[in-house]
Amino acid sequence: MVDKRVAVVTGASSGIGRATARRLAADGFEVICAARRTERIEELAAQIGGRAVTCDVTEPEDIERLADEVGDRLDVLVANAGGAIGTEHVADAKLEEWRAMYDTNVIGVAASIQALLPALKNAHGAIIIIGSVAGLVAYEGGAGYCGVKAAVRSLMMALRLELVDQPVRVCEIDPGMVKSDEFSLVRFHGDAAKAEAVYDGVEAPLSQDDIADTVAWVASLPEHVNIDQLVVRPRAQAAAHKVHRTG
Q1: Which of 21, 150, 177, 218 is the S-S candidate for 135 at Cβ 3.0 to 4.6 Å?
Q2: Which has the closest alpha carbon to 29: 12, 48, 50, 6?
Q3: Can you give the three-state secondary structure of 201-224, one letter per residue?
């Protein structure tokens, strides 16, 4: 009997993480849903036949508990926990928000990989990071978030070199404009009007399910095929500064 493939999705309580957990479960994975909001991930895990682990990736004890739940084999780690906070220019930036972004988007990703790498090696698994086009090109008001996503990209490039002789794939997906349920809302500190204005006039931004489909495709590939970097944008977005809006 072949054991069921196991995937961990961090940040699984909403947005891309939740959509990815659902999609991987539909593809036959047993998904360990990891996030801070226990009630949400318990509900999700019950719906998809997975497991829920309350996990703040910035807390070492939570990361250790996640590793204990995983055990000695893990087929896929989707390191998705993170997000953007604020749009202030550098001169006015709230540095405590920058620290929070670095802790979650960079240190939290590194901690997740460190803890789960032995299990990934045992399973000849894949690390799939959800990066951002913000890590490729900076823009006004984005120095903090662009900085953390650029740091994640450097982390993945270094990791790929370090694991070249190991049976682990190191894959990076960099979405452009995605209309998810919480990303912009968090960035604008709960201001729903500002969050919605990000997508005004954009006929078809990406959905969180679009990115989940992309993750599932990367996870489905043979172990000798590594997607180093995959940039995914809606057709209406040619670059961070070039978005077609109607009206």
Answers
A1: 150
A2: 6
A3: CCCCCEEHHHHHHHHHHHHHCCCC
Instruction: Judge residue 128's burial from the number of C-beta atoms within 10 Å of its C-beta, 0-12 exposed, 13-18 middle, 19 or more buried.
Output: buried
Among residues 147, 143, 150, which one has the least CA distance to residue 92?
A: 143
Reply yes or no on whether 145 is catalytic: yes
What pLDDT, on the 0 to 100 scale, is given for residue 2? 55
Q: What is the pLDDT of residues 158-206, one digit of tens each?
A: 999 999 999 999 999 999 999 988 787 888 888 788 878 888 899 999 9
**Residue for token digits 């399973």?**
123
The overall pTM is greater than 0.70: yes
Three-state DSSP at 98 gives: helix
At 69, is the pLDDT very low, low, confident or very high (cuts 50, 70, 90)?
A: very high
Choice among 102, 139, 145, 199 that is catalytic:
145
Interval 225-241: pLDDT, tens: 999 999 999 999 998 88
